[in-house]
Amino acid sequence: MRVVFLAPAFPPEMIQYTRGLAEVGAEVHGVGDTPRQALPREVRPHLHDYLQVPRLLDEADVVERVSAWLRGRSVDRVLANWEVMVETAARLRQRWGLPGMTPDVVRGFRDKELMKERVRAAGLRVPRSARVTTEREVRAAAEEIGFPLILKPIAGAGSADTHLVRTQAELEAAVAAMRGIPEASCEEYVEGEEFTFDTVCIDGRPAFENVAAYLPKPLEARTLEWVSPVVITVRDMHQPRLAPGVKLGRQVLSALGMGDGFTHMEWFRKPDGEVVFGEIGCRPGGAHLVDQMNWTSDVDLFREWARVMCWGKLEADITRKYNSAIIFKRAIGQGRITRISGLEELKRRCGPWFVGETLLRPGTPRRNWKQTLVSDGYISVRHPEWEEARKMASWAANDVIMHAE
Fold it and tell me: Which pTM value belongs to this model?
């Protein structure tokens, strides 16, 4: 099984997918813009061959260079798990006549307006929205949709460059901040709780499913520096209040023509119980969500994803054992981390349910919280009971404090 894997070492979690491919017997041909000699040590043993390209995000150039590189050799799969590379992978599959989702199907997972059009056409509830390319169109869409609303890039990932707009003044500020973005989606802001629906699919059907709760919503977490964002996977994801979201997720996969691989969807549960589609990508969730899913079921989804993509099956026991929480911490102050308070007490209180932490140590410069989801590191805990997991996550969010100056 010869596999071309785009971006095998960046973002860093891609190293784990490269490992997974090698462990299920794939011969991995990596493509990236990092010089071969600068590749991380962890990824090198898992690569059979590697092509460095000058501009990884230049789709047309990458397609030509990779095609020339592999001329005369047979390839079985072309894969990518980084959001910005999934369309390039689809183009290469189309060019070589390889199995996998087509460029048109993948575009439905990348273009947020096309995505909502296709989901809406299937009779599913989506936010009211409009594609906008000029400031005039933004203002016209805002008048039609009304405040509050969301303004975000058509081909964005996560909540980057996403703005919650409640007033005309905030709209003008958002317009100014997005002047370098060619296309955006202007859409209804949905009040209510926000969850994920994550899958590993085989021929569009989930072989693995996951629901996680955001506390608070990602957009709020991205606008309030003092918040310690919490994400908790839900052990009992089929409980009555969440089951409609799982059903919606499965219907969305069908509406968009999903094939094999990871998906990461966000959806809302309104106060009246109505569920509303948010958005979806045909790639894994970021910010260590796959690690959380692994901790939830004591599984290695990096390897199981690879098994699905290469051999069309998922073999691991995916019984959901825990509610798994990850808590992202942001230091108080600027400059370098000076001390961490409350961490040892948290470990004592959580006992065996404390999974681990990656907090920056004293002397380390704190990160720009607006540019990284993982902030200044994270704490992870898990527990079979939801209330216990949420309580421990609250301790980590409120009682562990990182100081910087």
Answer: 0.92
